[in-house]
């Protein structure tokens, strides 16, 4: 019988697998989509996942949480540097690009995150004609500059419903909220989240930001503070979310409600300097910190950073 020491001498001693390599191997074995590992930079690993189905992202999120890997939306400009810890870039890709009417004659469309804006325009969303046709719906929804409607006017986005996978694994269905909406919030996590968000929206900091014509904070908490004639819609919290608050699995857009943003040069759309100009940098920063913490307490998604 061959001894362990002799077998090691003949075959070579197997080196211990690093946590990053273990993460990559387990993710490859778990998913149906495509996985690409990039060359490590100063021992920090990065990879890209192009999911084939929603369950791929659920599995990736769980493994990211287990191994301390940051999960970031691909295709959007992330504010903070993402090369200081292991990161998995998630690209919605063409396997998740469905775009179809909810039912015949309806103005509402079910849209997956990999659908391109050019494809929306092609089926009748002429409001997207002036936006980059090659970017995904996921990237559009995450981009603060492209979702920069006036304060309280988030309803002009045409966004009706959204399903979002939160950083802790909760799958939340967000939509109209109020007396006219008969569907209760599902689950204790979502109920607590929404109650806390309304508390933040009632703060002096939120009211100071609400008085500005252009919303000065990063996260659209004004979704809970709609203008006269508009209603509260929890899905609007995801407008311009930067990829910092969750992974959006699908949207429902109403082609009759989508309205172009006010005519502003691209360079004048949202930047953090807007809050500084309005002398609301402290208030906006406080709101952003509180909203981010409520959505992603354990910081498993990118931090908004300082630049966007």
Provide structural commentary.
With 308 residues, this protein is α+β, with helices and mostly antiparallel strands. The protein folds into 2 domains: 17-90, Uridine Diphospho-n-acetylenolpyruvylglucosamine Reductase, domain 2; 99-295, 2-Layer Sandwich (Uridine Diphospho-n-acetylenolpyruvylglucosamine Reductase, domain 3). The chain has 9 helices and 9 strands. It has helices at residues 4-11, 19-30, 54-67, 117-122, 137-142, 188-201, 204-210, 273-277, 281-295, and strands spanning 34-37, 46-50, 70-73, 87-90, 99-101, 108-111, 159-165, 171-174, 247-254. A 5-stranded antiparallel β-sheet has the order 5-6-9-7-8. A hairpin with an 8-residue loop joins strand 1 and strand 2. 38% of the residues are buried. The mean pLDDT is 89.
Catalogue the unreliable spans.
none
| Beta-strand percent range | 5-15%
Mean pLDDT: 89
Shape: globular
Structural class estimated from helices and strands: alpha+beta
Strand line-up in the sheet with most strands: 5-6-9-7-8
CATH topology of the largest domain: Uridine Diphospho-n-acetylenolpyruvylglucosamine Reductase, domain 3
Spatial extent as radius of gyration:
21 Å
Number of strands: 9
Order of helices and strands: HHEEHEEEEHHEEHHEHH
Helix content: 25-40%
CATH architecture descriptor name of the largest domain: 2-Layer Sandwich
* Domain unit count: 2
